[in-house]
Amino acid sequence: MISDNRAQNARTVPQQRRGRLTRWKAEFPYHWDADDQISRRELIRFAVMASGALFAATAGVAALNSLKPQQTVSRQAITATANVRRGEAYYFHYPTDQDEAILLQRQNGSFVAYSGKCTHLSCAVYYDKASDKLLCPCHDGVFDPQTGAPLAGPPQRSLPRITVSQDSTMLYAIEEGPNA
């Protein structure tokens, strides 16, 4: 009989304790039957589906970009050679009307052209005749007008060079490419 009472007390004491414990004192306060938020399997399934959707979207953008015809610019007239004096700059648009470019006539009479966008953050670059440098006023970038190479400031890459051709009286922009 004593063993029956102990067994009875063992069953009732934990039930009594559970009723008196507050939720934060319980060993594991969540009820498994109420835990219907999301399972691990559903979480993994969602992560895999989201990754797949992002991959498909990236592949779609790449496919659409490859279908777009590449912009080809043929020879484009810049200006007459008489309009650019030695040691001065002439600003023009190349390859589109939204893209600025700079044409310089060197002291030796040859012409060189560069993109008018700084290679740091695409700010406008201009020629400063007093210092004989190409300057980017946004972050004090300085470029060499002879080579387009960065001399000071945050730009790490040279300005893209525009190939220039000259016939008897006209200058033409042929193509824009990386500076050598």
CATH superfamily of the domain at 76-177: Rieske [2Fe-2S] iron-sulphur domain
Q: Average pLDDT, to the nearest integer?
A: 82
Largest sheet: number of strands, sense, barrel closure? 6 strands, antiparallel
SSE order: HHEEEEEEEEEE
Distance between the termini: 101 Å
> How would you classify the helix and strand content by structural class?
alpha+beta
Low-confidence stretches: none
Named CATH topology of the domain at 76-177: Rieske Iron-sulfur Protein
Q: Briefly, what CATH class of the domain at 76-177? A: Mainly Beta
Helix content: 25-40%
What this model shows, in words?
- This protein is an alpha+beta fold.
- The protein has a domain of 102 residues: Rieske [2Fe-2S] iron-sulphur domain (Rieske Iron-sulfur Protein).
- Helix content is 26%, strand content 27%.
- The protein has two helices and ten strands, in the order ααββββββββββ.
- Strands 1-10-9-4-3-2 form a six-stranded antiparallel sheet, with no helix packed on it.
- Strand 7 and strand 8 form a beta hairpin.
- The longest helix is centred in the N-terminal third of the chain and has 28 residues.
- The radius of gyration is 36 Å and the shape is elongated.
- The termini are far apart.
